[in-house]
Amino acid sequence: MVILELALMATDLDEFFGSAIVLNLLFKIPIKIAILLTVLDVFFLLLLMKFGFKKIEAIVTTLILTISGIFSYLVALSNPSIQGIFGGYLPTPTLFESTLPGHESQLTLALGIVGATVKPHNLYLHSSLSQTRKINHKDKKDVRKAVRFMIWDSNLQLPLAFVGNSLLLILGASLFFDHASEI
Hints:
The chain is mainly α.
């Protein structure tokens, strides 16, 4: 159990420091103040828990939809190759070949990207959300209903995370591919 908690904390650290760095980069806020603002943000969300999980779910859903809308708009503006996008989802023989001496295959790179963007703690979050629901554990029908909602929660959030992460990768690839010499 301790290892699991440490792993969850480690996955949250990148988001915590990432938020502080973004505040620093976007608004030129000194990093120490950005870290303090991020800490206050976390405490604010914990304070909101007193008003119920549904309120936090509504806020997070609104933020996720806003971010998804912005990324969709930016991807549309970047004019990526639609054929390249759909072709990128299909495995090819070059996926397993090592292109440069001393470097891993494209498969290793792809798995690293998937591992970095698909957050396993989302599954833990959704399973803990199901525990906040009022359930009569003696009523099998009520338990089945709760399990069904948990399955829907998990099965909806993973494809949505896939789409969001795909938009992020598509935007990066369409803006920076073949422009490395300009940087």
